[in-house]
User: Which sequence fits this backbone?
């Protein structure tokens, strides 16, 4: 597995090896020992799977407040997304900065988003399926988010506001400056 750091401390791009032949392919997409050898020791407790039927579906930017913060290991099993992590750690030198990485069933990359980051993505192909592991269980009382297109974050989303497809929940998320007390 190839492991590459990003500009944000703790956010890592993982690219598993993929072995293919005339039958298809095989890939070990997660190995706890391999990650531990790279200094990444996480205990995943839940897997999530989403299907987005259309191009331009935006999910996020989501996070859970402490003590229910979640590390996430995100990958695409069908289609393509732009995956975004925003640093919410007030004491971090990269506070409010973000990283955006294209994940697809073709490039086979995964994004590790640690606790202390908001996470979201936009679909770039129809019928995109995203799966991700998390290190803490879903907690409705701690489920928070930031509006995806908040101008103070400067995220260059590849979808316009009038074309973005959002849930009612995500459309009503507050701006970054309105969630200050819940940050890490």
Assistant:
């Amino acid at each position: 597995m190839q492991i590459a750091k990003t500009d944000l401390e703790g956010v890592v791009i993982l690219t598993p090896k993929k072995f293919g032949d005339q039958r298809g392919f095989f890939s070990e997409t997660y190995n706890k020992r391999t990650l531990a050898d790279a200094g990444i020791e996480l205990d995943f407790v839940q897997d999530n799977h989403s299907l987005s039927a259309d191009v331009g579906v935006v999910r996020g930017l989501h996070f859970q407040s402490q003590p229910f913060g979640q590390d996430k290991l995100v990958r695409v099993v069908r289609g393509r997304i732009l995956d975004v992590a925003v640093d919410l750690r007030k004491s971090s030198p990269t506070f409010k900065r973000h990283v955006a990485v294209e994940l697809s069933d073709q490039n086979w990359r995964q994004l590790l988003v640690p606790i202390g980051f908001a996470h979201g993505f936009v679909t770039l192909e129809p019928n995109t399926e995203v799966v991700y592991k998390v290190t803490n269980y879903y907690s409705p009382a701690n489920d928070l988010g930031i509006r995806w297109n908040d101008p103070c974050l400067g995220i260059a989303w590849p979808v316009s506001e009038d074309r973005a497809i959002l849930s009612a929940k995500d459309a009503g998320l507050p701006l970054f400056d309105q969630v200050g007390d819940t940050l890490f």
About this structure: The mean pLDDT is 96. The first helix runs from residue 32 to 37. The longest strand covers residues 80-87.
